[in-house]
Here is the input.
Amino acid sequence: MNAVLVELGRRYVERWMALLVLPGLLYVAGAAAAYRLGHAHWADLGRLTGLLQPGGPLIGRGVSSVWLFVIVVLPLLSAAAGLAARGAATVLVRLWFEPWPRGLGRLAQRRTAARAARWTAADEAYREELDRVGVRPSAADSARLDALAARRNAVALRPPAHPVWAGDRLGAVDARVWGWYRLDVVFAWPRLWLVLTDSEQNALRTARSELDAAVALAGWGVLTVPVALWWWPALPVAAAVFVTGLRRTRAAVDTLAHLTEAAFDLRGATLARELGFDVPPGRLSPAVGMQVTAHLRKHV
Here is the structure.
């Protein structure tokens, strides 16, 4: 799935300008206001009067000082805040989607094991109910089966191999495509991208953009925590921003995973035909998929 994220993550400069540098203006203004208020006067908005006026706490005296602040200092501070938020978002990407670093290895193992235990218990409950109802379940039985399957799938779509849900959700795409079509996502994705229609590519780009925006929002939540050192209401604000970003990230990950898997469902056979394989009508068979994978890997 990392190959998919890289392919969809082009033109980062423009995207991060919109997601990080421009919100940096709001962040800098908020941080300056928080510093001005402090803990003792956290709700005294009157103390903000004159904050950005010449001779105030941030701007020197004279018109030239105002222009220097607006044209030079403020954009630099906003860019610095944007880079800091991007750094926080990068750390979140590592924790949510990639293997954890060595220093967190034991914690990662414990979290993965705990999630695996939850998944196993939910899967066993589902299978026990499936055996109980037999081949002709009633409407009530079907509803219970759906609820049990949903509880298991909320943990992961397969036995968890990552300490965080998002990593397992994206990793499930590789496993499901391989299990169903015997296609290696890493090698197949760049070629599959070339046979997708413009509307299909745009849908995937939109999903990736939504994921970037959600992770960036969570990064701003992390960056807001230090502001609480001099203005305590920043802490609940940071928590609200982070939780919102986390929820949006979960939704965006699920959407991107579904769209990526759908691309293989709809265009896997087209890819095989374009590569010169004889594909019978219908979906791509695992046998042909193995031939396509062997061709794409080129003995690698």
